[in-house]
TrEMBL record:
Keywords: Transferase, Ubl conjugation pathway. PANTHER family: (E3-INDEPENDENT) E2 UBIQUITIN-CONJUGATING ENZYME, UBIQUITIN-CONJUGATING ENZYME FAMILY PROTEIN. Residues 51-214 form the UBC core domain. The keyword Acyltransferase does not apply. Pfam families: UQ_con. Gene3D superfamilies: Ubiquitin Conjugating Enzyme. One of its GO terms (molecular function) is ubiquitin conjugating enzyme activity. This is Ubiquitin-conjugating enzyme E2 39. Residues 192-207 have a biased composition (Polar residues). Residues 192-214 are annotated as: Disordered. It comes from Capsicum annuum.
């Protein structure tokens, strides 16, 4: 009996693990659900011969295998142009254990044009690059696009989506100073940053805690 119970418990723990990558059926609450609604746009995500379809399918396979431990991604059965990413804030930063949601939409001419990203802020200004209305600073997206084209050694170079999502976790949700510049490594921001930055980081940590409890 003990062996059976132990086996059942082990199976339960395995099946209840939250997958890092998954395909879900309901996209109704996605910010970009009304995007790509023309017949021409829809065809780009249905026709298996289009560049958008082939590239996104390739990206799904990469995301399924290469997502970092702190990132979770959901794609949608009937809307392959939509994607939702959740990033868990890293330890040693003002965003420690916070959950940060991003809705992403691929354009019909992807990968010629980069995806659009919206931060689901719930009204909080958590970061200089992420606005309360969900706007993501354009220069940040430009940075990820440029880095993707020039960083030939990156394992994520073949996936623009993975590169952008990973950059959000490593660059945006990092130990930032009062002006939003990442000048300290995670775990050392209080030591390396000047007093003004520590005040800023303390305020961000409080916002993060409030967001998690609301």
């Amino acid at each position: 009996m003990a062996a059976i119970v132990s086996g059942e418990s082990k199976k339960s723990a395995t099946t209840s693990k939250f997958p890092h990558f998954d395909v879900v059926s309901d996209e109704s609450d996605h910010y970009y659900v009304k995007s790509n609604q023309s017949s021409k746009d829809k065809k780009c995500f249905i026709d298996t011969n289009t560049s958008a379809y082939r590239t996104i399918m390739k990206e799904w396979k990469i995301l399924e295998k290469q997502l970092p431990e702190s990132i979770y991604v959901r794609t949608y059965e009937s809307r392959m142009d939509l994607l939702r990413a959740v990033i868990v804030g890293a330890a040693g930063t003002p965003y420690h254990d916070g959950l940060f949601f991003f809705d992403i939409v691929f354009p019909s001419d992807y990968p010629k044009q980069p995806p659009k990203v919206r931060y689901l802020s719930r009204g909080y200004h958590m970061n200089p690059n992420l606005y309360p209305d969900g706007y993501v600073l354009v220069s940040t997206l430009s940075l990820t696009s440029t880095s993707l084209d020039t960083n030939t050694t990156s394992k994520t170079r073949t996936s623009r989506a993975l590169f952008i999502i990973s950059t959000f976790g490593e660059f945006i949700l990092s130990a930032v100073d009062a002006y939003g510049n990442g000048n300290a490594t995670a775990g050392h921001y209080q030591v390396n940053n000047p007093p003004s930055s520590r005040v800023h980081n303390s305020a961000q940590f409080q916002k993060n805690s409030k967001k998690m409890l609301s």
